[in-house]
From TrEMBL:
InterPro entries: Nuclease_put_TT1808, Restrct_endonuc-II-like, Uma2. Keywords: Endonuclease, Hydrolase, Nuclease. This is Uma2 family endonuclease. PANTHER family: GLR1098 PROTEIN, RESTRICTION ENDONUCLEASE DOMAIN-CONTAINING PROTEIN-RELATED. It comes from the Bacteria. Residues 16-181 form the Putative restriction endonuclease domain. GO terms for molecular function: endonuclease activity. CDD domains: DUF820-like (cd06260). It comes from Thermoactinomyces daqus.
Length: 196
């Protein structure tokens, strides 16, 4: 299995993506490949785990499901793999329509996506390329979690745009827009945990 020859200006599809080395993690945004290495930091994983636990406990027995990366989300106007040019692996995805789930992941827009920032190029991609992609495909709620400054930017879709932006910091409690009875306490997300 080969990796993409991303030094060229080739636009790749999901069909191409499926032929690449399965031991490597890639995303496609408008047909351009992005390598998902290096692996996330321990702080990134701790915060992501805390978010997952809150959603997992809340969604137990409910229709919606929560998924952690690696989990492929394919965003396209067309059904065919060769016409799908956006494949992302959000840190966390919540999907409320079971028809979108298949053996490969999610085909269509999740209801809520969470990205936990990593320094460098990946951070820029979460704030620009993925922001625009998630807006285009009408993700209802998008969180950008900053583990270093301990804050969460929450973007809500209004009139097909991320027009409503709220920033919450450690100590804040806020409601998840798609689950009006779910309160998120950021003290539970940004815990100060250490080994004893």
């Amino acid at each position: 299995m080969k990796s993409p020859a991303y030094e060229t200006n080739t636009r790749y599809s999901y069909r191409d993506y499926l032929s690449w080395d399965p031991d490597e993690r890639w995303e496609l945004i408008d047909g351009l490949p992005y390598n998902m290495t290096p692996a996330p930091s321990s702080k990134h994983q701790e915060i992501l785990g805390n978010i997952f636990v809150l959603f997992y406990q809340y969604l137990s027995g409910k229709r919606c499901k929560v998924y952690l990366a690696p989990f492929e989300v394919r965003l396209s106007e067309k059904e065919e793999d060769e016409h799908t040019f956006n494949v992302v692996q959000p840190d966390l995805s919540i999907i409320c329509d079971p028809r979108k789930i298949d053996e490969r992941g999610c085909k269509g827009s999740p209801d809520l996506i969470v990205e936990v920032l990593s320094p460098g190029i990946a951070e820029k991609r979460d704030k620009t390329d993925k922001f625009e992609l998630y807006q285009k495909y009408k993700i209802k709620e998008y969180w950008i979690v900053d583990p270093f400054n301990e804050n969460v930017e929450v973007f809500l879709l209004e009139n097909n745009r991320f027009a409503n932006r709220q920033v919450y910091v450690k100590g804040d409690v806020f409601t998840v827009s798609i689950f009006s009875d779910l309160l998120i306490d950021l003290n539970r997300i940004f815990k100060d945990e250490s080994f004893e």
